[in-house]
Amino acid sequence: MTKEDTTRVQRFLNRLQNHPVLAVFIILCIIIISLSTFTDSIDKLASFAKRYYPKKSPKQQKQHKITEIKLINGEQKESPVVINKSVETVARGLHSESEQGNTDLENLYKVAEKIYGVTPRNKQYLKIIDVALNKHDLEFAFTVAKNIYGTNPRNEAFKKIIIIALKMKKYNFATVVADEVYGANAKNEMYTLIITEKSKSTEIENSEFNKKGAF
After folding, report:
1. Which of 14, 42, 134, 146, by CA, is between 20 and 30 Å from 96?
2. Hey, where are the domains in the chain?
3. Crossing angle for the helix pair 138-149 and 124-134, nearest 10 degrees?
4. Which pTM does this prediction carry?
5. Which residues of 6-36 are buried (b: 16+ CB within 10 A; e: fewer)?
6. Cα-flanking dihedrals φ and ψ of residue 56, to 5°?
7. DSSP secondary structure of 40-90
8. What Rg, from alpha-carbon coordinates, does the chain have?
């Protein structure tokens, strides 16, 4: 700071001493601006935290965990369980002998969406996809995967769906999934797998046909 600048500052301070009202006004303005900036920063941080780290009360977390175990693990046949008072959906235990077909799966998915929203990191969606694949409901598994993960080629759920589809000899469905997720990239390993499995199946069918023809 030069001597001239020092002189100007000194003059300004002298004026403030001679005009206490002006000094108080300037100090108040500085405080208001500081508080406003600080409040904006806090609001932005809070908004960020709510968006990426939704907070649930310990009671809710415990309640959800218990319900998930009842819904997913084992073949239980409990009475309907209300997951949350704020969620007006009742989900029944998943079991292979259910006479309602995939109604339980659909209810479970709706409940998960209401509780967790579209959160790809949540492992409950992977469990739902696994249960759907165990029930051989490829379309439902693929729908859930797309809704939660988009068409992210790095996600393992899509590989699982393709592999199960191939085991079920649903080659066209496996190709549709691969096209949507991997963009018809012939170099992708999943396309190689589809072609290989389809060729094996064709060879087996031809072999069986030839055996029947021989007799």
Report:
1. 146
2. 9-52, 56-114, 118-215
3. 160
4. 0.48
5. eeeeeeeeeeeeeeeeeeeeeeeeeeeeeee
6. -120, 150
7. HHHHHHHHHHHHHS----HHHHHHHHHHHHHHHSS---PPPEE--TT---E
8. 31
pLDDT digits (tens, 9 = 90+) for 136-186: 888 988 988 888 888 888 888 899 999 999 988 888 898 899 888 888 776
Could you tell me the two tokens for 101?
A: 């077909």
- Counted residue by residue, the chain has a size of 215
- Phi, psi at 124, each rounded to 5°: -65, -30
Which amino acid is present at 110?
Answer: K
Residue ranges in the chain modelled with pLDDT below 70: 1-6, 50-104, 186, 205-215
Rounded Cα distance, 133 and 140, in Å? 9
